[in-house]
Amino acid sequence: MADIMFFDSTLRDGSHTLKQQITLESIQNYCQGVDKAGLYTVVVGHGNGLGASSLQVGLSRHEDQEMLSVARKYLRHTKLGVYMIPGFGTIQDDIIPALDSGVDLFKIGTHCTEADTTKEHIEFLAHHNREVYGVLMMTHMATPQQLASEAGKMEDYGARGIILMDSAGALLPESVTARVAAIRENTSFRIGFHAHNNLGMAVANTIAALESGATIVDATTRGIGGGEGNCQLEVLLAVLQKMGRDTGVKLYPMLDVSQDVVAKEFGYTNGISTLSIVSGLSGVFSAFNCKVQQVAKEFKIDPRDIFVELGKQKVIAGQEDLIVDVALRIVAMQGKDDSSYLIESLL
Fold first, then answer.
1. Does residue 277 sit within a domain?
2. Domain shared by 154 and 97, yes or no
3. pLDDT digits (tens, 9 = 90+) for 23-69
4. Which residues, 6+ apart, have CB-to-CB distance to 39 below 8 Å?
5. What would the pLDDT profile of 75-113 be if each residue is shown by its tens digit?
6. CATH number for the domain harbouring residue 248
7. Last residue of some domain: 252, 272, 292?
8. CB under 8 Å to 334, separation ≥6 — which residues?
9. CATH at residue 321
10. Which of 52, 94, 209, 314 gets the most CB atoms within 10 Å of its CB?
């Protein structure tokens, strides 16, 4: 069984990039697409969380309760999560209505040295036996020892875990390792990491967190998020698979929502493309991409399946003629039970 809990913040952190204008239809389509993928939770709402819609930080296209109601309807296997920063949101005006909307999981965030501001909110949720996690933001601004102390407070309040946010994308792997290690030595609850990609280190930093004992990944599809975005979830899944880690998350559904919802509906085409991810995972020459897409279209098959089979055959540059042979084999296999040409864990 996978030991990593994947928190998908595409519909929360991605709202920053979309200027808080995410549509209810897109929330529906995204939730439908990922519901059976194996994610632990999908976090929904304004980029700054519950109660944050304002002229100062951006007005949401829809009220919190509207967004949560749609997500709740289409998340049947995956927990519905929300984020809240005390000051933007309150227990009475935001947490209680979220509970009434069927929210399963709460993340309560604050600046990395101000855990005490979350005490009332975490204790309220813990008292009501709700799943709640503390979040420390801007963690590059505090030492590992300071973070361990602040995390300990959140554990005492009743949080089930702590998520460290590299909100500025300023950390390097060794800095992440030191912070996670310090918290592990001083607490007994789960540790998570939420990376930003300002220095291009989001995936590497997340791997460093996991190798140091973190068991929660907070990331987004296609890396959509504030600034240069977050750790790209589907890339991380492919990297972990290459490393032999059991993620418990199916990659193909994540690739589908990356292309069909985040790229097409949101209009966000940054990040590594879905075919490039499968090409890298399969070990296939990158320049095959255009030919694979052409052949897949001609034969009406999934180009990802072509890459998987090419990888199994260990093709190299100059063997483009094999792409058609592979396509013919896949067509021949369609409608049969034998799907051995696929990497089962991708499905």
1. no
2. yes
3. 999 999 999 999 999 999 999 999 999 999 999 889 999 999 999 99
4. 6, 7, 8, 78, 249
5. 999 999 999 999 999 999 999 999 999 999 999 999 999
6. 3.20.20.70
7. 272
8. 301
9. 1.10.8
10. 209
Phi/psi zone of residue 85: left (φ > 0), alpha (ψ -120 to 50 degrees), beta? beta
What DSSP letter does each residue of 176-217 carry, written as one string? HHHHHHHHHHH--SEEEEE-B-TTS-HHHHHHHHHHTT--EE
Provide the pLDDT for residue 333. Answer: 84
C-beta of residue 229 within 8 angstroms of C-beta of residue 271: yes
Reported as a single tens digit per residue, the pLDDT across 277-286 is 999 999 998 8
Tokens of residue 229, six digits = 């975005």
CA diameter of the chain: 65
Residue 139: domain span: 5-272
pLDDT of residue 341: 42
- Percent of the chain past pLDDT 70, that is, above it, reads 96
- Annotated catalytic residue, options 16, 46, 62, 196: 16
Is 16 marked active-site?
yes
Closest to 80 in 3D by CA, of 65, 62, 60:
65
pLDDT of residue 227: 86
- Tell me, yes or no, whether 77 and 117 share the same domain: yes
Q: Check residue 41 and give its pLDDT.
A: 98
Pair (185, 89) in one structural domain: yes
DSSP-assigned letter for residue 113? T
DSSP class of 116: G
The number of distinct structural domains making up the chain is 2
The answer to whether residue 278 is domain-embedded is no
Residues in the chain: 347
Each residue of 110-142: pLDDT tens digit? Answer: 999 999 999 999 999 999 999 999 999 999 999
d(CA 209, CA 187) in angstroms, rounded, equals 16
The number of beta carbons lying within 10 Å of the beta carbon of residue 218 is: 30
Task: Put residue 314 in one of left, alpha, beta given phi > 0 → left and psi -120 to 50 → alpha.
Answer: left
